[in-house]
Amino acid sequence: MNNKMRLIIDPKRPGPINMGLDETILEEVVSGSELPTLRLYGWSPENVTIGYFQGMEEEVDLEACERLGVSYLRRTTGGGAVLNAQEVTYNLVAPVGFAGIPKQILDSYRYICGGVLAGLRHMGVEAEFIPLNDLVVNGKKISGNAQTRRGDYLLQHGTILLQVDVEKMFSLLKVPAEKLKGKLIADVKQRVTGLEILLGRAVTFDETIAGMVQGFGEHLQVEFERKPVTAVELQRAQELADEKYANRMWNFKR
Amino acid sequence: MLKAKSVYKIPDGKLLKVFLTWDESSNQITKVLLQGDFFIHPESGIEEIEKALVGCALSENFMVSSIERVVSHFGMELFGVNSQGIAYGILLAKAQAEEGQKHE
Predict the structure, then answer these.
(1) Which of A64, A96, A151, B52 has the maximum number of C-beta atoms within 10 A of its C-beta?
(2) CA dihedral of residues A68, A71, A75, A81 (deg, nearest 10)
């Protein structure tokens, strides 16, 4: 194993700081200040993220978010709207070529998702990669993933669902046609799953993180160097949170 | 100036939402906003695509070639969305608005 990778096991944090940290880590790895990094984290309070190309008011019931104390923000990555609640999220930042990460975007999605698949396998769940960006078990989605690039560096983040509260998800996320709501909830219930449903038992945040560390480590053949977020990174993440991810200009820009 | 919106699931792709403003007399786009759960690398490419469509005639061929020109110029990669899908979504918005007018 020649590839060293920084491993951050982070506490649950507010959405704007989480997205600020993902972006800060990309900046730090691009500048050469930090090793390629895998950060595993959670969300508190619960948070809705929309994809870069989505419209906030189109996708999110803002009143419901305020009422339920759920924050909302726009990601730097594309993809769909997500309620970040009972889940473990990963953020992997590395140059292409590191640990065998392909340059081609579709191939790199598949390759990095292989780490999640290996982690799930350790936890007793056999999932499969469905292009472009989903991991499913028996046709039900357990993980969504999204990637952005800065030159030859990539940031890929994604979720591993522990529990799914479909009713809550749909009270926060808007569906295309209001009258189809009942139908879609039934549909989505069939299409989304979580580790607790699949394993038929309570699954903790910590054991999921442990599974992912093992899975990514084996899949990427990297040697992890565990190191927390630095004070400098946290300060930069707070700046990005204030200027961008908690800022109306960014969140409502499309 | 007319305004319209469409929601279009691109075949084998993602959901595209189009917010279109066009000039009826010239049949040209005056403003377009493209939203959806697709991916474009780099992300700023979406603004270039939207800019390239302004002034473009509301014809599939014109729109597809305008999009493809700017995609290639900026070296963009599109996933879950493509030039045909965008052109179709725009024409769908216009057609739905015209259909709505007929029934008014």
Answers:
(1) B52
(2) 10
- Hey, what are A143's tokens? 């993980």
- HSE, side-chain direction, 13 A CA sphere, residue A180: 7
CB atoms A81 and B37 under 8 Å: yes
Cα–Cα dist A167/A185, whole Å: 7
CATH number at residue B57: 3.30.390.50
CA quadruple B40, B37, A143, A61: dihedral positive or negative? positive
Give residues with Cβ within 8 angstroms of A68, minimum separation 6: A46, A168, A171, A172
pTM of the predicted model, to two decimals?
0.94
Query: Two tokens at B66?
Result: 């305008």
Domain range for residue A75? 3-251
* Reported confidence tier of residue A176, pLDDT bands at 50, 70, 90: low
- Give the mutation candidate from B74, B79, B92, B96 for the A interface (greatest A CB count, under 10 A): B79
Does the distance separating the beta carbons of B35 and A254 come in below 8 Å? yes
Quick one: average pLDDT of A222-247?
98
- Name every chain A residue with its beta carbon within 8 A of the beta carbon of B92: none
- Domain residues for B56? 2-102
User: For tokens 């189809």, what's the residue?
Assistant: A180
pLDDT for A57-115, tens place per residue? 999 999 999 999 999 999 999 999 999 999 999 999 999 999 999 999 999 999 999 99
Q: How many domains is chain B built from?
A: 1
Taking residues B21-33, report their average pLDDT. Answer: 97
Instruction: Please name the residues between 20 and 49 in chain B that touch chain A, using a CB distance below 8 Å.
Output: 33-43, 46
Contacts of A58 in chain B (CB under 8 A): 17, 35
Nearest CA in chain A to B16: A54
Please compute the mean of the pLDDT values over residues A122-127 and round it to a whole number: 98
